[in-house]
Structures are given as C-alpha cells and as structure tokens.
Amino acid sequence: MKSPKILIFSTAYYPFVGGAEVAVKEITDRILDVEFDLITAKLNSKAPKFEKIGNINVYRLGFGISLLDKLLLPFWGTIKALQLNKKNNYTKFWCMMVTYASGAAYLFNILANILGSKKVPIILTLQEGDSENYLKTKWLGLVDLSWKLALERSSIVMVISNYLGERAKRLGFGREPILIPNGVDVNRYSEIFTDEELNELSEGLGRNKENMIMLVSTSRLNVKNGLDLVIKALPLLPDNIHFFNFGSGEDKKYLINLAKTLGVSERVHLAEYVDHDELPKYLKVSDIFIRASRSEGQGISFLEAMAAKIPVIATPVGGIPDFLKDPSNTSGQVATGYFCEPENPQSIAATVQKVISDPNKNQIIENAYKMVKEKYDWDKIALQMKGIIPF
Q1: According to the 3-state scheme, what is the secondary structure of the chain?
Q2: pTM of the model
Q3: For the segment 56-87, what is each residue's pLDDT rounded down to a tens digit?
Q4: Residue ranges of domains in the chain
Q5: Range 186-375 has CATH code 3.40.50.1010
Q6: pLDDT tens digit string along 251-291?
Q7: What's residue 159's pLDDT?
Q8: Best CATH choice for the domain 5-183+377-388 from the list 3.10.350.10, 3.20.20.60, 3.40.50.2000, 3.40.50.300
C-alpha cells in the first residue's frame, strides 16, 4: 500500500522560524509513514528553490523579495499545486494558518470545481495570535472575511488552543474544531549543561555582574508581544533587574528609544535572533521568563521556558490560560506560573517582585515542567494528531 501524500501550504518555513514552522517540522519528523511536500515563499534570494528538510520536500516560490513573494504566493502556489498534484495525487492539503500560502489551496479547489476535476480535502490549522480587533480592522476587514471563507471551505479545522476554537466557531465553522496544541521537545529544553558552558554564556551576557536578575523573553519585537510594557515596568524595579530579549522585529528602534526615554537603556538588552537549538542554554542562565502579550494564539515560548525549568510570567489572554494557572486561581488547579494584568506595567513590576520572593516558586516550576512533559511533548502531540487526523 502506498504512503499517503500531503501537500502543506505555509507562507514561511525554515530558516524563517516561528511557532507554526516549528510545529510543522516537529510533527512531520515524527510521522514517517506519510510523505510530505510543502509550498512556501522564497523570501530570501539565497534560499534554494527546492530542498529536503527533515521529512518534507520544500518548494520555495518567488524572487527572494519578501513582500512581493507573499503577494504572488496565492497564485504561483496554485500553479505549483496543480503541477505537484498531477504527479502525486495528494490525499489532503494541510494549510498552516489563514495566510497567503493557504490561499493557494482554496484557489486550487475553486479551479477544480470550475473544471469539473477532483477537489482535495483541506485541513486548516489555526495558530494565529492576532487580536480580534486586528481581524476586524486590518485591510478594512478583509482578514476577518478571509477567515470566514477559509473556514467555510475546510474539511477539518485544527486549533492549538480553546481560544482559537471559539474563534473558529464564532466565524462560522459549523463543526467542533479539533484541539491539538503546539508542543515542546522536552528532552532538548531540559538538557543539562556543564557549569563551564553556563558560566561562559553568563559572562558573555554580563549575567554575573552586580547580582543581576535576568528577565528573559524569546519574542518577536512587535506590538502583540507587549515588550514595551516590560520595559515600562523596569523603572519600578530595582536596578539589578535587567530585561533580555532574543528575537528580531519591526519595533526594535521604538523599543530602544523607549528604554532611553525611561532611563533604563543599560538594563534593556535586545539581542538578535538566537538559533532555536541554542535557546535552551539561554533560558537556563535566566531567572524569569516574561512576555506581557496583548494577544496570543497559544504561546509556545512559555512552554519552552517551563520545560527549561524557569518561572513564567504571562498575561491571561488568548490561549495562555489553557496551560498557565496562577497560584491565586480558585479552581483548585495546580499552579504552573504567574499572571500579571494586561496593559499594566505596575502589575508586571509587582508580579516580578512576587516571583523573586515566592517561597513556593520551586514547586510551581516543577508543576509546570511535569505538565509540559505529560501534555505538551512533541512525541505525544504527533501521536495525537496521527490518531485523530485521517491522512
């Protein structure tokens, strides 16, 4: 019996890495009896048009000009999908989010319907962390409309959080979405490093100076992730508390100027993107993971920090409450982290002080690690997906 063949549509893919791209690779690397192809935008002129990454044949389309490649992707991707499907006869299309790339899958089926040929069932995974307001106002509401059209034309909708499941139903998906969260390679993030390795990295970061307490985030520099709120909290905290972020983004200049205006430039360290394989070591030398998200689809970075066994501060927005339970919760659920209030630097500062002085902190860290290992390890997520989704 021939292996099922799946064509994945993702606007970005390795080496451009976010939670969605990590999810695709981690899952497909563990499902070896299915053949995967992937259509994505080239985005960089040096990126090869084709290469095999893990268990996926990756086809990059475009000229290496980011915006142009994205705008062309729905149409160029449709043509490429027609060519590949003629050869491979795919059993399913798998769309990673409602994006430029997924547009190609839906256009393919529209053409198939017009031409009287066979349509391919579409699996749509919702990973987006954008706010409700963003969907309704971006491009005069066209983002909201594109979600409705995609949901209407999808055979299966997977979501990574209950929050996104409710959104899918609100926007018209008539069946129950399938909840399959993003996960973590627990073994990698719980890796034990030598004191020499950790001390060397700490020295390089200035970590061993002035009894520094290191707040860390691994976030894209954008409005959604609320890094400006963390910077606004620093003047309310002792001078030995510094904030490090490892990630790039469009708001870097604004955040640098904000830190300068608030007089905390020497305590804000906006480092460049760190390779995903190196992140566990950077988390291990940190004291507290923090992201004051304004919206969040799920929040894989929080789970990675939990797997690395450092305490986590977050806001109770989007999909975060699925896995983070604050000690003050009245549901009786085991505490796995700490909540601060959204849009509130004073609450952020108070929560940082609370974590530093909390005598139960180590137990909360252990609770979080145990939860991630039991519920969010990629090995279990891949098995769950394979058991539910009929490839």
Answers
A1: CCCCEEEEECCCCCCCCCHHHHHHHHHHCCCCCCEEEEEEECCCCCCCCEEEECCEEEEEECCCCHHHHHHHHHHHHHHHHHHHHHHHCCCEEEEECCCHHHHHHHHHHHHHHHHCCCCCCEEEEECCCCCHHHHHHHHHHHHHHHHHHHHHCCCEEEECCHHHHHHHHHCCCCCCCEECCCCECHHHHCCCCCHHHHHHHHHHHCCCCCCCEEEEECCCCCHHHCHHHHHHHHHHCCCCEEEEEECCCCCHHHHHHHHHHCCCHHHEEEECCCCHHHHHHHHHCCCEEECCCCCCCCCHHHHHHHHCCCCEEECCCCCHHHCCCCCCCCCCCCCCCEECCCCCHHHHHHHHHHHHHCCCHHHHHHHHHHHHHHHCEHHHHHHHHHHHCCC
A2: 0.90
A3: 999 999 999 999 999 999 999 999 999 999 99
A4: 5-183+377-388, 186-375
A5: no
A6: 999 999 999 999 999 999 998 778 778 899 999 999 999 99
A7: 96
A8: 3.40.50.2000
